[in-house]
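Summary for the steering committee. The consortium agreed at its last meeting that each partner would contribute one worked example illustrating the joint modelling workflow. Our contribution is presented below. We chose a case with several input lines so that the handling of multiple components could be demonstrated. No manual editing was applied between input and output; the record is shown as generated.
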Amino acid sequence: MTSMLDRQTSTEQALSQRVFNFSPGPAVLPVPVLQEIQRDLLALPGAGSSVLEISHRSESFDAILAEAEANLRELLDVPEGYRVLFLQGGALLQFSMIPINLLGGQGLPASYIVTGTWGRKAAVEARREGRVHVAWDDADGNYVRVPNAGELDLPEASSYVHYTSNETIQGVQFRRPPEAGGSPLVCDVSSDFLSGPVDVSKFGLLYACAQKNAGPAGLTVVIVSDWLLERSGSDLHSMLSFRLQAEKGSRLNTPNVFGVYVFLLVTRWLRDEIGGLAAAAARAEAKTGLIYEVLDADGGEFYVPHAEPASRSHMNVTFRLRRTELEPAFVAAAADRGLVALKGHRSVGGFRASLYNAMPMEGAERLRDFMLEFRATH
Amino acid sequence: MTSMLDRQTSTEQALSQRVFNFSPGPAVLPVPVLQEIQRDLLALPGAGSSVLEISHRSESFDAILAEAEANLRELLDVPEGYRVLFLQGGALLQFSMIPINLLGGQGLPASYIVTGTWGRKAAVEARREGRVHVAWDDADGNYVRVPNAGELDLPEASSYVHYTSNETIQGVQFRRPPEAGGSPLVCDVSSDFLSGPVDVSKFGLLYACAQKNAGPAGLTVVIVSDWLLERSGSDLHSMLSFRLQAEKGSRLNTPNVFGVYVFLLVTRWLRDEIGGLAAAAARAEAKTGLIYEVLDADGGEFYVPHAEPASRSHMNVTFRLRRTELEPAFVAAAADRGLVALKGHRSVGGFRASLYNAMPMEGAERLRDFMLEFRATH
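What follows is the complete predicted structure of the assembly.
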């Protein structure tokens, strides 16, 4: 047992050790959420056990699951006729589950709009299940933007139209959903989930891994319309069937109990501390705006932004240095100032500053100040 | 911020609130493990972030993953030529991944030995991929025992022979692996994983969900031989391919970082506090022995054990009351004494006391005392 004084010291030390973590995911979580997890870790109030020890059939978890879903429905204004599923396996398993459940039996190709790495990977998995039509792919353009309405090459009908609302690696984001020409719209919202309002009624299915804005790694949230769920075959592998997962209310087997609990705490924080998704969107725009301002003011002389202005992400800001040989020094100097995980994905290089909901404004300000300072001194 | 005094009180209160949790899973975890998670929740030493926020590509997680695997290899004495995978989706996803990877292309059926609910479910999923031969199924006998060597109806060769080392719901456990007649042995060790030594070299593949003896829900551990891995097709859905998961060292996509971290702490505790798996086995036998003694001394007059003595589980003790109408009173009176989650699975009824590694001897003693008292007063 540690003494009172030790504990006092250790909490203060822990908070003082915390850096500004710009990791693209797993990513920064709200400090009040971490503190609540910490406070109740030995015994969840009323449960007599840690949240890590409670049965997924317990009353405690019934309440957690119900509130997690209710909060999500409130935040995103999810209409009637949509189911919320808490699954495992990340977006990559969804890349497979979506065509496994929705592509076969339609006699129609699935159309994929590819604006970066994740959309491309999604299409690779879909091809294992049937015909895939690529409606747009900016590989030649190095994935710096989303398509305009007129650029999409969509067939008359698709079993569904898939796109990625925010490409984490390239830092390219749709401002509004593309027109799917009447086919069901399916969207990977992993890296901008809960960062702003979404008109869910426009979608057949939305999915997100939690480890960006919504919780820890190991939890995947799927919002699926009843009418699309009808397509899910009854002879699929149980764990891969949307229909079975929905019928069993996300408890076909033991879900990631802790992940759902953290998700619940994050949604409470979003509602009560941030003020909902419109406020979150304004905050995200303000934070990334600080960094984009530096990039724009520079005019490409020192910093080179990756994404075109109209397609810039409000979650992941991607840029390089004109003098790429200075990039290691940038990373090292940033880390000295407690600004970490800024290195870009190896496929793009340079830097990526991920400014999810839980990144405080101060983190964005510190990064801006550092970028100005680094330019001035180099 | 809470004051020092509040924190002191809250830790003592939390510990005093803790009940003896006999849940079959998610299940009790070692208190020192929970305390370490709690202590470091705001900032993992050296990381500057919570373990819930660190990248799965960070040096911190490199170290966690490496030590988790090393500890498992040490505890189970895993030989060369086996890979350890940290996956998601629970045993139910393994019920599918195993036939998806290992059943096709062999021209041989997969043989399933069914000693309870989980083995039966595993066979259901395997049938989606190919021929399944049931080598033994005790459904008519109500799953009270494991088969004798002579009872297995095995074909000359099987693509693999699958069994469940411990049936959590029925409380039936194999004392030693069945003879597979030269075919690869595949075992669901979910509910007795890390409860005692296992000769891994006898197996082609072992798998376990973590939420019994090894960690929180949302993590699955697979130990697979290189020679069996060779069968895993190269055109499978990425997330379902053992080969790809092995090639990418469990980081094909973002793994359950927190789950691996807790697994690491549990394996340290098993080694340093329990003294390894032989000691864990002796402890499990001693704890369940206290309960089986009550059942045996009673001679079936008041308490009715489910499993036959030679097949009794050292993890999950299953029994009923002769007068089943008293069962709700038993559950309520036990809960009054802080002995919770004793209700049996709805398919078997009665009671199930799960006494995993983290259940202290005191929990077993309290349950024994309560059972004696309840019999005396009814």
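DSSP finds eleven helices and 14 strands in chain A. The mean pLDDT of chain A is 95.
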